[in-house]
Amino acid sequence: MDIVKKIMNCRWKVLPAVFILAVSGCATSSHPPAPASAEKMSDWYYLIGPGDSVSVFVWRNPELSGSFPVRPDGKMTMNLVEDLPASGKTPTQLARDIEKSLSKYIQDPIATVIVAGGVGPFSQQIRIIGQAAKPQALNYREGMSLIDVMIAVGGVTDFAAGNKAIILRTTDGKQQQLSVRLEDLVKGGDVTANAEMRPGDVLVIPESWF
């Protein structure tokens, strides 16, 4: 009887260790980690999107100047110019297009475009899906990090497998899957788990099995 008790005691001491090893193995991600920081993206420029408000100033032609909304179809209408495509362009590119359109009516027009609203096109928004407290799409801001995203969505739910979350990122036409440690970042306060975000990123937060 004593031998049976000893075997049972040893069994219950070994099982938790095996369980911990199994869980640790499941938590290991096969995806490369998202970079914590990167050099400033010199190739990133804000692009105009539906919902933005565009202020146009035409030099020496105040009657042509004004504030004009970008419609859901990505086009805008201003004085003398109708249905001008605006979505997906930088303010400078749109200004050149306005000048080209106005050159039919006035000589050597000079236009300046200022954008208000900061909505941007869908292709540059960051989307958070899965077990976030408030899944949503966020407008990208220069220097945006994973911490900023987590604050905006209110963290993760109690059912989230935070350390199994991934970022889907498209670079040069190829999609990458990058692992992030949301559990360590949000609940553990480990700032080393912070990561950079880029325009168009999709953060996927899966549900825990336990």
From TrEMBL:
Topology within the bilayer: Multi-pass membrane protein
Gene3D superfamilies membership: Outer membrane lipoprotein wza domain like (3.10.560.10), wza like domain (3.30.1950.10)
One cellular-component annotation, GO: pore complex
Keyword Transport: yes
Cellular compartment(s): Cell outer membrane
Keywords linked to the UniProt accession: Cell outer membrane, Ion transport, Lipoprotein, Membrane, Palmitate, Polysaccharide transport, Porin, Signal, Sugar transport, Transmembrane, Transmembrane beta strand, Transport
InterPro entries xrefs: PEP-CTERM_polysacc_export, Poly_export, Poly_export_N, SLBB_dom
GO molecular function: polysaccharide transmembrane transporter activity; porin activity
The keyword Signal is assigned to this record: yes
Annotated GO biological process: monoatomic ion transport
Ranges where the SLBB domain occurs: 124-204
Signal peptide limits: 1-29
Main location: membrane
PROSITE patterns found in the cross-reference section: PROKAR_LIPOPROTEIN
Ranges of residues in domain Polysaccharide export protein N-terminal: 45-115
PANTHER family: POLYSACCHARIDE EXPORT PROTEIN GFCE-RELATED
Family statement: Belongs to the BexD/CtrA/VexA family.
Protein name in the entry: Polysaccharide export outer membrane protein
